[in-house]
Amino acid sequence: MAVPEPKKPHHHGNLREALVLAGVQLLEQGGPEALTLRRCAALAGVSHAAPAHHFDGLPGLKLAIAAEGFRRFRNYMVDAEVLGEQTPRGRLKSICRGYLNFARDNRALFWLIFGYDLSEAPSAGLSDVGAYGYAPLRRCCAPFVPAGTAPEVVEAQVWSLVHGFTSLYLSGRFRGACDPADEAAANGLFDAVMALLDALPEQGLGKPGDLA
């Protein structure tokens, strides 16, 4: 009779990460209703009491998962920026593409991170992570901010455009314009909408900056 292989013990330093990744998996597989501390612990292969040592209940776990979501969100935008056309407008459109790609690949995380009011988050660190995730958009909008205009104005214009499209796309609202299952058609519609960014006059004031 084969002897079952013992579970590998989790080191104290990576147990929190293992629980967060288990939580992300539960979210993606079953949505918010599937996320519980007990299920998260079971998936991570630890006792059901283990999450209590790292999180303040389920809200604390959700905040940690949201922080992970913001990091992934940023990485998608930066990766798309690096691969795209290296002009101010090209970088701006590329991060918008990364924005959509993140949402496509991480639907549950997308709804989770944008469902939080960061100003009211019990963890000050989450607001910092949210700002970190937002930084590529802010940087790529900078070359289009007219002198004397608050950067937030242009950022809000671009953010509203890409977030609005992405949210409607995920909700299946474009079935009259294209089949969301047809990626090529969806990409074509996305490009047509993002062409509105061509109306932004380049000011020549911003620099690409550090992509890290």
UniProtKB/TrEMBL annotation:
Q: Which InterPro entries match?
A: Homeodomain-like_sf (IPR009057), HTH-type_TetR-like_transc_reg (IPR050109), HTH_TetR (IPR001647), MT1864/Rv1816-like_C (IPR025996), Tet_transcr_reg_TetR-rel_C_sf (IPR036271)
Q: Which PROSITE patterns match?
A: HTH_TETR_2
Q: Which residues form the HTH tetR-type domain?
A: 13-73
Q: Which residues bind DNA?
A: 36-55
The organism's superkingdom is given as Bacteria
Note whether DNA-binding occurs among the keywords: yes
GO MF: DNA-binding transcription factor activity; transcription cis-regulatory region binding
Q: Which UniProt keywords apply?
A: DNA-binding, Transcription, Transcription regulation
Record-linked PANTHER family: HTH-TYPE TRANSCRIPTIONAL REGULATOR RUTR, TETR-FAMILY REGULATORY PROTEIN
Protein name according to UniProt: WHG domain-containing protein
